[in-house]
Structure formats: C-alpha cells, structure tokens
C-alpha cells in the first residue's frame, strides 16, 4: 500500500467532526457543540435535515480530496468568514 493510501486510510479512521447547530439547538434539544464520528455523519447525510459539511483544512488540501458536497473554510479563516455559514440546519466542521 502506498504512503498516500495509508495516510488517507488513517484520516478516515481518525475522522471526527464537530456538529454545530447554527440555529442554537442541537438535534437532542441542547445548545452547544457535539463531537461526532463518521457513522453519525453518514446517518445525518441520509436524513432530510439540512446539513452543511465544512472542511476546515487548507484550500490546497481541500483541492486534493474532499467529501462530496462539502464547502471549504480553512480554520485560519473561520472566524473572519463565520458570516458565510448558513443559519439554518446543522453544520459539521471537519
């Protein structure tokens, strides 16, 4: 297995996302941020609930590989670009 494939596999295994409800309430009715894993992201993608995936890696990393339908807001720009994030639905930062 090539080094790149091992790295991608490791990234998939280590993938943990932050679920951030921008309307102020989590799916369970509580406010705040929730750590979720790949299985939960897949489950959320299969529901009719509005879901926005935000890749916080650099633009170069985003161009190399990304989750289909994800937007890119590098972590270094997140505070400045926060207003670009829709206020409805669930936002997953990864």
Verbal overview:
The structure is a single chain. The model is unreliable at 4-15 and 22-26 (pLDDT under 50). This protein has a single domain, classed as 3-Layer(aba) Sandwich (Oxidized Rhodanese, domain 1), CATH 3.40.250. A five-stranded mixed beta sheet has the order 2-1-5-3-4, with helices on one face. The protein is an alpha/beta fold and 94 residues long. The protein is 32% helix and 22% strand.
List low-confidence stretches. Answer: 4-15, 22-26
Shape: globular
Q: What number is the mean pLDDT?
A: 75
Helix and strand composition category: alpha/beta
Number of strands: 5
CATH class: Alpha Beta
- Total helical segments: 4
Whole-angstrom Rg: 14 Å
List the strand order in the largest sheet: 2-1-5-3-4
What is the CA–CA distance across the termini? 25 Å
> In total, how many domains does the architecture comprise?
1
Main pleated sheet: 5 strands, mixed
Q: What percent of the residues sit in helical stretches (DSSP H or I)?
A: 25-40%
Which architecture name does CATH use?
A: 3-Layer(aba) Sandwich
Q: Encode the helix/strand succession as letters.
A: HEEHEHEHE
Instruction: Tell me the β content.
Output: 15-25%
CATH topology: Oxidized Rhodanese, domain 1
Compact overview of the structure:
By secondary structure, the chain is of the alpha/beta class. Helices cover 32% and strands 22% of the residues. Strand 3 (51-55), helix 3 (59-64) and strand 4 form a beta-alpha-beta unit.
